[in-house]
Amino acid sequence: NLVLSTTFSTVEECLDYYKNDLNSFCANREYEPTITDGLVLNLDSGFSPSLRPGSDVWKNLSGDNSAQLSGGYKINNLKGGNIFFDGLSGKGTIDLTYVSNIYSISLWFKLEDDITSTMTLLSSDKFNISISNSNLQIGINSQNYSINYQFIGDNWYFISLSKRDDKFIVYINDENFEFSSTQNIEGGVLNIACSNNNNNFFKGNTTN
Questions:
Q1: Are strands 185-192 and 119-123 parallel, antiparallel or unpaired?
Q2: pLDDT for position 115
Q3: CA-CA distance, 23 to 28, in Å (whole number)?
Q4: What is the pTM of this model?
Q5: Cβ neighbours for 16, distance < 8 A, ≥ 6 positions apart
Q6: CA–CA distance from 27 to each of 44, 47, 50, 79 (Å)?
Q7: Nearest alpha-carbon partner for 160 in 104, 100, 208
Q8: Once rounded to an integer, what is the mean pLDDT over residues 178-200?
Q9: On the chain, which terminus has fewer CB atoms closer than 10 Å, C or N?
Q10: Residue 4 CB: number of other CB atoms within 10 A?
């Protein structure tokens, strides 16, 4: 109030000011109390140390490497902060190095419209997660999984993949699906919102 000559008395008034002032931003410096120990990759578009408005670098909170954003994308502060990918050229890329037989992968996304073709959420040369209007498709090395699920436009979805020993569990919102698997997951260049062949672009929003 001293700097701006305002009379704000609530947190909401202050945050509303920062939301509409393009020359300032408000940093939430303390990370939410969630389990992050042992993570190889932790990208959070709602946490300013990971992604700042106007930036093309999406910082990995669990390592020194960062994802590079390019093409058609937009950073916005809706729903706590997210990135909109345009389905034409918007994507992110990050180089990861790891090999593991025990792993978990999770992400939030919202579809812009009903799906008319396959769209890729994450991919590398040995790993792929993609969706169509009625399927979640997962590829790990030479093993492929397909789950019947109806994805509808303008809805948020949470997907989590958990692998331990020979058991592979997939969660989509409040439903779960279980498979047998012996496939390790390997690192490399990870593509966000497009396939490894630079097509099947995702159109919608993602938070992490």
A1: antiparallel
A2: 85
A3: 17
A4: 0.81
A5: none
A6: 13, 8, 10, 16
A7: 104
A8: 86
A9: N
A10: 11
> Residue 94: what pLDDT?
92
**Three-state SS letters, 3-24:** CCCCCCCCHHHHHHHHHHCCCC
Distance CA 203, CA 73 (A): 10
Neighbours of 187 (CB within 10 A): 17
Mapped onto helix, strand or coil, the DSSP state of residue 51 is coil
pLDDT for position 192: 94
Tokens of residue 164, six digits: 């331990």
76: confidence class by pLDDT, cuts 50, 70, 90: confident
Structure tokens at 119: 């769209």
Residue type, 198: N
- Pull the structure tokens for residue 18: 């920062």
